[in-house]
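Minimal example, chain plus phosphoenolpyruvate.
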Amino acid sequence: MNAILKHPFDGWGFEHDLRPLVIAGPCSAESEEQVLDTARQLKDQGIEIFRAGIWKPRTRPNSFEGVGSIGLEWMRLVQQEVGMKVSTEVANVKHVYEALRMGVDIIWIGARTSANPFAMQEIADALKGVDIPVFVKNPVNPDVDLWMGAIERIQGAGITKVGAIHRGFSTFDKTRYRNIPQWQLPIELRRKMPGLPMIVDPSHIGGRRDILEEIAQKALDLNYDGLIIETHCNPDKAWSDASQQITPATLKTLLGNLVIRHREIEANVNLDSLEDLRLQIDTFDNELLAILEKRMQVAEKIGEYKKTNNITILQPDRWQEILDKTLEKGKNVDLSDDFIAQIFKSIHQESINKQEKVMNED
Ligand code: PEP
Ligand code: MN
């Protein structure tokens, strides 16, 4: 219980074992000056790992698609003259070979690519025999298995340093996010792949500067291991993703504002009281389950009644009434509308399932 956690990036060849790991740099490499200027400013702020997109998978044609291979030479200057490790995105076999040939230290696979098993397999095959860190971004669609599959293909190629990047998911509806975080998905991924390092990409989740910090803090509170944040020497003039990029100085402020909480029980924490609190949580969970069981038994009786009297299961007015009442009561006990709506929707769905079963029994 009191185990000292192995650092998530142990053996990855990163000099510092600071938590969180920070990767920063522009969305795209634009020119040698822009790359070096940004990198120098980041290094001055203590950032060790540089990012820049060389090949940019753009949603629509006729936008800036990256400078291509020449950008890798600027990345090499970042390694040699600034002394940072460099990382970039690869989307096909050609990118992998070029990035490896130029000595890129870390690669990541973007959200449009991780959604494509053929592309993932080809990239994995091209990586066989090298063991550099590889991060796999979540696919654009909220599908944990697809994300896992992409990671497994990389691991299957013998890569041992594999991590995940959470960059949010596409939606048709406009929300306050560019890509909605759907935090339950990365949490589920980590449950299924324990020990997998996970970093957050607040830039592509947020799509705007003013919510980067809030997203980063939330991720740290969920035990994420690092951040990748788009940073540009002149953000407003960036050739891609200008509205979400920040200066190295702003990044420094953001990092300074983050609260880094203990992820494991450390020696100075009173274990007894934590143990006690956990015991209380377990007791309440058991009570919740017992109450749910009783509620479902009543639902089954209702199912029998509806069957006998030949009426349909879904009674929309009744369901609306339940939802309204619980939302109202939820407010009094400081439970958010979202939470109440989600939990009662699932309870209601389970009741319907139970009733359906009863009504369709011979
Ligand atoms: C990026 O990191 O610049 C990028 C293109 O991200 P994503 O694949 O998450 O859209
Ligand atoms: Mn970008």
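DSSP finds 13 helices and eight strands in the chain. Residues 27, 230, 240-241 surround manganese (II) ion (ligand 2) (CB under 6 Å).
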